[in-house]
């Protein structure tokens, strides 16, 4: 069933979906709800670069004609002359827990390794987000450790688990 999950660029008629998923606390869920921010930022970003810039990008996760969520990536520069991608995912509640997130993250890794010279792709997730940790591991990521007080949500700092996949790492079947 999840083999039909695909990634595609965000189209203009997808923008209301993107805005709802990223600004509705019920849809964003407890690990991604960052509070109320300007929902027009998504349209401005799309008008600027189609949400596919040099340092950051967003792709829609779809199955057939159904929009399931988003995957995103942003460039991080951990040291001079080196950089990596940090990826994230946001799925509609009805698409969670059925393998769509694992498949979407695998597809994003394949895409980024095929179209950029990057050596490392990483992901960070809340220590309490066990479902995302399992999805990342199934997608071929290796758990590296816990980053204490790394994110701020809901009025407090949260520990995050750091995962990575390197270009030469074996890919899951």
From TrEMBL:
Q: Which PANTHER family match?
A: N-ACETYLTRANSFERASE DOMAIN-CONTAINING PROTEIN, RIBOSOMAL-PROTEIN-SERINE ACETYLTRANSFERASE
Which keywords are on file for this protein?
A: Transferase
Question: What's one GO MF term for it?
Answer: transferase activity
Please state every residue range assigned to the domain named N-acetyltransferase. Answer: 5-168
The record's EC number reads 2.-.-.-
Q: Give a single Pfam family match.
A: Acetyltransf_3
Which enzyme class? transferase
Record PROSITE patterns: GNAT
**Name of protein:** GNAT family protein
Q: Transferase among the record's keywords?
A: yes
Q: Establish whether keyword Transferase is in the entry.
A: yes
């Amino acid at each position: 069933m999840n083999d039909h999950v695909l990634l595609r660029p965000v189209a203009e008629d997808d923008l209301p979906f993107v805005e709802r998923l990223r600004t509705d606390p019920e849809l964003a869920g407890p690990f991604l709800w960052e509070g109320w921010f300007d929902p027009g930022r998504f349209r401005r970003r799309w008008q600027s670069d189609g949400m596919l810039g040099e340092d950051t990008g967003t792709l829609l996760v779809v199955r057939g004609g159904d929009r399931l969520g988003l995957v995103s990536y942003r460039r991080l520069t951990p040291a001079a002359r080196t950089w990596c991608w940090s990826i994230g995912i946001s799925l509609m509640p009805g698409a969670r827990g059925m393998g769509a997130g694992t498949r979407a993250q695998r597809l994003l890794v394949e895409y980024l390794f095929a179209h950029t010279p990057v050596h490392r792709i990483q992901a960070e997730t809340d220590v309490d987000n066990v479902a995302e940790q399992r999805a990342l591991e199934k997608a071929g990521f290796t758990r590296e450790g816990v980053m204490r007080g790394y994110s701020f949500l809901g009025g407090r700092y949260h520990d995050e688990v750091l995962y990575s996949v390197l270009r030469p790492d074996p890919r899951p079947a």
